User: What shape does this take?
Amino acid sequence: MSKTCKKAYITTPIYYVNDVPHIGHAYTTIIADTLARYSRLIGLDTMFLTGTDEHGQKIEEAAKSRGRSPKEYADEISGKFKGLWDELDISYDKFIRTTDQDHMEGVQKAFEVMYKKEDIYKDQYEGFYCVSCETFFTKIQLYDDESCPDCGKPTSVVKEESYFFKLSKYEKRLLKWYEEDDTCVLPKAKKNEVINFVKQGLHDLSITRTSFDWGVKLPTSMNDPKHVLYVWMDALMNYITALGYGKDEKDMAYWSGTTVHLVGKDILRFHAIYWPAFLMSLELPLPKHIGAHGWWTRNGEKMSKSKGNVVNPKEVADAYGVENFRYFLLREVPFGQDGDFSQKALIDRINSDLGNDLGNLLNRVIGMSSKYNDFEIDSIDVLKYHQKEISEADKILETLEKYIFALQLNRYLEELWKILTIANQAIATYEPWTKIKEGKRDEALALVALVANLLAKVATSLYPIMPKTCQSISSSLGFSIDKESYNEIIKEKSLLKKFTIKKTPPLFPRIEEEVLETSEPKNEDKKNEGIITIDKFFETKIKIVTILEAKEVPKSDRLLKLKVDAGESEPRQVIAGIREFYEAKDLVGTQACLVANLKPAKIMGLLSQGMLLAAKDKDGLCLIRPESKKSSGTAVG
Ligand code: MSP
Assistant: This one.
């Protein structure tokens, strides 16, 4: 995001209303809230959008299974999202629902524009559909049992008339965009995944459905009432319909400002490929950044309702404090990487970073100022005695903006904490209590003023993440945090002239034990450790393969390079560490068992597309093979 931009437009995904909000939703929304608050603090005219995605087969089915109408059900869950955002102090400017009339009309308008441009045509769709992901797949993309490659749930065959968007037409322009705009997709690793996907070739996208009803109808000008729009086309358009696209377009000015879409890694493809292609077709500017964050697990496990381990953000916030939770989420994981939620990790962050580092420092300022000067602090001698510490802190502050706009919020916080270290070290080094004893009162007071100033700078910069806490700190120090004070003490690097310190109760009382009664494994569950369900076992896809070719890998005593037939359109290459136990030539024509859905890996620079099952004891190693010959690709299980 460039500093010269006057307007900032920050968005979250709009959340499906098939289920209540969880930690994943809270995470994206808290990141977005932080960016929005930061943008406002530095003086950008900011629009922060969130909302709910209420159409599509998934919602229709969820409502039906509860005996409710889709709209009734959507009203209830949408309300729950709003309620949670209030609890978590989310400062959104607009909450959009895809059932809003204006949104639906805006989407129809967009369809018309794209159709007139001849980017949309009618044909027959034949393929597979995952209702849970609301995604189309071709057979080759599915697992052998035709389950969804993204969520593992069963897919259904779809054969129906459909309108298609000419996605393939935009392939080259998309690649050019990724190449020319370094930070359009963040982080870089995720951007590379998108580029690789597009380079494999884009197929035109089916954008209407006829087999159910719960969606936006085609514009009446199309005179084709049996079609409803594909839910992703409907949903993505929310980013512009919320600004009045196709209606009252005065807020569209935000679209030409700095647009940042925050999304989870699972929905990056829709945002970084389909969405910019739609925008190209609509001849609208492309977003500035699309940031994809990682997923949260619970004590190392994927969260799911059936396991009963889904983290309820409201429960955590109630138990540990909203702002402590906000801090934890942003500090704990680098943006883009997966993170693990545990109460222990949260408690450690609260006691250590917040209690020991931040809270203690405020207590020390309060204590020292009361002892030495009746709560009055003057910055008059700070630069005389502490130029070095102030310069070091200002240098750190100068770099912070870069981390925010690169979405590296954990780095932002890490850097900010270095200022707290400077302050704590200064107290240890200069020992103001000794100075007082030695009669050097002005030096002692300069030290207290240094610490108060550093704390003021930290509180101002931490405000977007912990707004209420930082307001408490600032009111205890006797200043307020706003655009003006940000400009003064961060941008212009000024010191606050005087402080009148007010006592405040400890901000981060120490937490001694886990507060939440949850499904986190307790001692009595330990005996079940290592036991998995049958579903978990079947997440591993094992296949019988026939070895077609085997060669030694040069410069390796251990490795053989195998070509195996796994019953697929092409053989796979597998690098196996079995050379000590098998002659390459003896393997050709034999069969083995392959773990077929392992993430491909490079071994000594060679691609390995799976792993052979083997057993090893003191007598050596043997491959696990079928007792009698089976067709290549037969599933084991
Ligand atoms: N409705 C679509 C988005 C349309 S945007 C035009 C959707 N909704 S969702 O409710 O299923 O998911 C919303 C977000 O929650 C996604 O960004 C997803 O990555 C995020 N998360 C869902 N589970 C998550 C975790 N366990 N951890 C972190 N985020 C995860 O997709």
In short: The two ends are 51 Å apart (CA to CA). Residues 304 and 481 are 40 Å apart (CA to CA). The chain has a mean pLDDT of 93.
